[in-house]
Design goal:
This protein has about 180 residues and is of the alpha+beta class. It has one domain: Jelly Rolls (Sandwich). It has four helices and twelve strands, in the order βααββββββββββαβα.
Length: about 180
């Protein structure tokens, strides 16, 4: 699966698409963090969001990539109004929100986060994020890769099925932050 994003504006076509994407009642998508409203598994919910986002026009996101001594830093600069899903991570990693306010939901945590904030996400994590403001997010992850293409192959999975196959169905756990 790929990482997808959409910038939401008030134009009527995008508003209609936004209404079709998610059952959020609030225009700021704060309701994205409330995944407990029914018994549908998180994985199904986030993959539905991603499939719906893939049907809509995509936006270009700015990234900065840095490698040093087996560590990859991937910094994302996302604009206010961006709604996105992440890759599925093969490895645990640190997340640094340098600036911005986001609604965040993963399989093990969710809420409204204001940067600066640092937390750790476990292997197998995938998230949906809505940017209430412009945001800067850096992921810090171990890899022996020295370029973006090789790093992506090393740290991201294409599907939950791939995660289950590699991990014998082990589910996610909260990692200390």
């Amino acid at each position: 699966m790929k990482e997808v994003s959409l910038i939401l504006r008030s134009e009527s076509a995008v508003q209609k698409a936004k209404d079709a994407i998610i059952f959020a009642e609030k225009c700021d998508f704060t309701d994205l963090i409330n995944f407990e409203r029914d018994d549908t598994p998180f994985r199904e919910k986030i993959m539905l969001i991603e499939r719906k986002l893939e049907l809509l026009p995509q936006i270009e996101m700015q990234y900065n990539h840095s490698f040093i001594d087996g560590v990859y830093l991937r910094t994302l600069y996302a604009p206010k109004g961006a709604l996105m899903t992440s890759y599925i991570y093969r490895k645990p990693h640190h997340c640094i929100i340098s600036s911005g306010v986001v609604s965040y939901r993963s399989e093990v945590m969710g809420g409204k986060i204001t940067g600066p904030c640092i937390f750790t996400a476990g292997a197998g994590s995938k998230r949906v994020v809505y940017c209430h403001t412009d945001m800067v997010w850096t992921t810090v992850i171990k890899t022996d890769a020295t370029n973006v293409e090789d790093a992506m192959k090393d740290i991201y999975l294409s599907s939950y099925e791939e995660w289950d196959k590699e991990n014998d169905g082990v589910t996610l756990t909260v990692v200390g932050g």
